Amino acid sequence: MKVTKYLIAAVAVLTVCSARADEGMWLLQLMKQQNSIDMMKKQGLKLAADDLYNPNGVSLKDAVGIFGGGCTGEIISPEGLILTNHHCGYGAIQQHSSVEHDYLTDGFWAKSRNEELPTPGLKFRFVHRIVDITDLVNAKVKAGEVTEVDALTAPFLGKLAKEELEKSDLKGKPGIEVRALPFYAGNKFYLFYYKVYSDVRMVAAPPSSVGKFGGETDNWMWPRHTGDFSMFRIYADANGEPAEYNASNVPLKTPKFLSISIKGLKENDYAMIMGFPGSTSRYLTRSEVKERMEADNQAMIDMRGVRLDVLRKYMDASDKTRIQYASKFAGSSNYWKNSIGMNKAIIDNDVLGTKAKQEKNFAEFAKGKTEYEGVVERIDEIIAKRMPVTRQLNYLYEALSGAIEFGSPYMIMHKIKTALKEKNDSLLTASKAQLEEVFNDIHNKDYDHEVDRAVAKAILPALAQKLQPEQLPVFYQTIQSKYKGDYNAFVDDMYDNSILANRTNFDKFMKKPTVKAIEKDPATAYSRSKIEKLKAVSIEEKALSNGLELLHKAYIRGLGEMKLPVPSYPDANFTLRLTYGNVKAYSPHDAIHYNYYTTTDGILEKENPEDREFVVPAKLKELILNKDFGRYAMADGTMPVCFLTTNDITGGNSGSPVINGEGQLIGCAFDGNWESLSGDINFDNNLQRCIALDIRYVLFILEKLGDCGHLIKEMNIIE
């Protein structure tokens, strides 16, 4: 593979003449080569590049890590105390909640280390080392060990990562994980070594009336008054190494933690965010943006909307159900609303027009350049053929894999059938054990069979309205023939009479399994039909996408060359990034101007005791009315809650630290604004805003509402 001038120039730009300061999710390991540090200093940064990222020493990046499976968290004390969002810790809070101990409603405040709650399955990952492996991958392609397309795939990169770990000095060290990933659509490759701590305990979480104040209504909206934070702590063995939970483990002595500034902020102050943005698609063509709108987002809007309506009804009627489905509902509704906002913003902000102009400029640039000429047209041809199948796949997935939880493991059932027919006792015993695990997994503490039944009754006919009969799984034919088109009768038969429907049915089958029982089981037939259709459509979509990876690789490389000497950043892929900008207000529409911060006055203005989303706890209301804010109030005596910056963030940045020019924590990022939800596709400097929780509000809630002064004493607070 030849090395193009883009691969050299993108990491060795000497001049940054017109880069927009706010746009960009920059790789820390390329800051010096891309001279982004100079631009940051012009904006107000007081630190050196090595203070942010130092591969040979301690830096700010060592105070930031991956919280759980999809958020960012930061270390805010020398005792391993983590700050992240309430919605990031929501699954853990829900895991510990019950009707008797409703931490979702009441909040949780550990008053001592002994009260901090172990949270099985929760992990925190620090980036330990980053290695450029571009030359290694390219050499393997050149040697014929792997094709250029396969070099972009997870199987190859996973195998390569394991091989590199085997050669590394980190081999065998506790808690080390490694990932190899492509960047710039495969024009660069990096290897990430993570140090993973698996004893993470819940320390503090405000009640949902604070941590989720505004709920669905305010989600993605400004002005915002949500106290979206929670706190956890990393525990390690006596040597400070990762270890599974043990009562003898001790709080981790971290090499770096963030000092906290309560000096306040003003408009245009420098602000940077370090974190793990999940996914962006800034380099899509116009045709691909249309596919995102019509085939991806619309399927999510339609199918999740049906499920959420059902869940809302049952959660409002029962505290038990509300707790069971709290985390599921929050996760589903977040990107349901995001998809609605994104489609609206794409139209309102004329993203399709912007993409068309970019493609026109690229066509001029590509003239006479063999590797770039006609690339966009070839992408468009693939998308035109693929789009109907992509739409079908997304609707099927959202409805049948994303909404309905009940089903039957038809492959295990097939094994049991085989064992019965062949009289293979060992296979039968093993398969029955697997089936027992599946039954317990389905009927877990966060599952309600009747709620899921109601979802199925709503979602199955809704899906049939969106797809053609031939696009649906075979079980839809069964509904028409056996149940005379009565979806409710089909669902009731499956949820009442299937082997895995309840403990009585299950125990009866396990006591005396028969081939006939399996063949008659409606859930097994349903699951087999569903999976076979999803597999077939997925294979078809993959075949229609053939060649797209290399076209994207060429297109992104070409766009990078076209921009020079301005550097380019790669799309987000849940790796460590830095974005920088300023505290700033915005004006989304004519005659509308939004201030850059909100105060507790807005909490009382929004209060509605009849609406669960806008309930204000009595103690918090008293504190606000009495202006009992302590040292955290602004100079005029008001209490700040949230603020806006121009930082470029997306999902995965939730919980990321907002840091001032001196490297001090001033807030915690948790959302984007409604008007710029097309930002994952096209950044708009005028509209794009990050919504952050002011650290002063965090400390106020922690001290005054949670009575956790002992936690504040752990922190290094700068007044």
Describe this structure in words.
It contains 27 helices and 21 strands. By secondary structure, the chain is of the alpha+beta class. Among the domains are: 126 residues, no CATH class; 133 residues, no CATH class. The strands form three sheets. Strands 2, 3, 4, 5, 6, 7, 8, 9, 10, 11 and 12 form an eleven-stranded antiparallel sheet that branches. Strands 1-15-14-18-19-20-17-16 form an eight-stranded antiparallel sheet. Strands 13-21 form a two-stranded parallel ribbon. The longest helix has 32 residues. It is globular, with a radius of gyration of 27 Å. Keywords: Aminopeptidase, Hydrolase, Protease, Serine protease, Signal. It comes from Bacteroides stercoris. One of its GO terms (molecular function) is serine-type aminopeptidase activity.
The main pleated sheet reads as: 11 strands, antiparallel
Contiguous runs where pLDDT drops below 50 for at least 5 residues? 1-20
How many H/I helical runs? 27
Give the % helix: 40-55%
Class from secondary-structure proportions: alpha+beta
Distance between the termini: 55 Å
Q: Give the percentage of residues in beta strands.
A: 5-15%
Mean pLDDT: 95
Topology, number of strands: 21
* Overall body shape: globular
Gyration radius (Cα, Å) is: 27 Å
